[in-house]
Amino acid sequence: MKHPTKIENCLYAFLEAGPAGLRQIEVASPNQGYRFKQLPGWFWSSCLNTDVSRLGKQGIHIARAADPFTRSDGGQANFYRYWIPTRKAADQALTLLNHYRLKRGAEYLPVNQALMLVEQFPVKSEGKF
Questions:
Q1: pTM of the entire structure?
Q2: What is the pLDDT of residue 127?
């Protein structure tokens, strides 16, 4: 069986991160990327906005808002936080994730894990930031 693709890891990271979402600084390093809690492995990306755009082209809605970061020297760095805004969007992300899993010879995520991931999202979009 093949290893998960980057887009598959990206989908899973957004689902697992829940409504809190992700920002570039949290996934920027291959040594300190987003570590999965439920699966072995991690997700890292040098260009999260490109990954978000790619998901958008596949019909997955990812919300975004400015989320500045204060550096250790007190200066500000500008980042965006990205997240799945609704349960419907999370369900669509799960469907696409399972499509990629099947394509590489893996099984769908177990039902209880899939429910846990999707049900943490609000039924309707909530304002953020």
A1: 0.89
A2: 61
